Amino acid sequence: MTISLVTGGCGFIGSHIVDKLVKMNHKVIVIDDLSASENERFYYNDNATYHQKDISLDDCSSFFSDVDFVFHLAARSRIQPTVGTPNECFMVNVVGTQRALEWSRMNSIKKFVYSGTSSLYGNQNSIPFTPDMATDCLNPYSMSKWMGENICKLYSQLYNIDSVCLRYFNVYGPREPLKGQYAPVVGLFKRQARECKRMTIVGDGEQRRDFTYIDDIVSANIFAAKSDIEFGIYNIGTGVNYSINQIADFINGKRDYIDERPAEVRETLADISDTIRDLSWKPIYSLDEMILSY
Question: What is the pTM of this model?
Fold first, then answer.
């Protein structure tokens, strides 16, 4: 039986990956410290095994025994909160990643799939973003996730731990975080509209983002795990972007415009040609079709 381990497997993206792996008849082990404040709830699958541990502090080495694939999602994952608490961000996202890779090395796992971020492209790069561009980290979150990629590269080169780093572009879908003013924009706007509140648009609303549906993110992880890539960094997006005003138009609610925030990029757009070529993956879902489907 194939054994897969998912760190951060009780959260938005991780729980969907767990569900998919269970459907594929994998034995699934989940490590999650249940600390993500942005989650209204955590998600469980009756056919997976769960351990409440902090990978940056607790010894989790025994859970990696006989594991085939590691899907590493455990992280401090919101940009703005990490600006105020960088220590915790670097501890979990950098030290936690190194420890997960070390436990993977000790147990000779077949593939380490790392959940990265498109936010590390920053403002200096022109769209569409390609994985070979220089990074321009504007906040602790993007810096810590970029450092995690480099630790994956080191473990691949030095210890022959095959790893694939996936740079996600604005993930949305069922189970997306809804709490607080820093929730991802699709879930935030839908929550505000549902509660008959005005949607809060940062700046002029003409910022553009490449929005990626959760099922496409899950399939990218599966394709990465099955690939023969020894080390690679790949964009997971759609190659199409939308303005924040367009998102508000889709949801059709009233809106208020608020001041711009520091350390956020103006526009993102993924070049996924390498991803399609090397991982045999391509997105299926588009925002205009899916935004009101759940």
Answer: 0.96
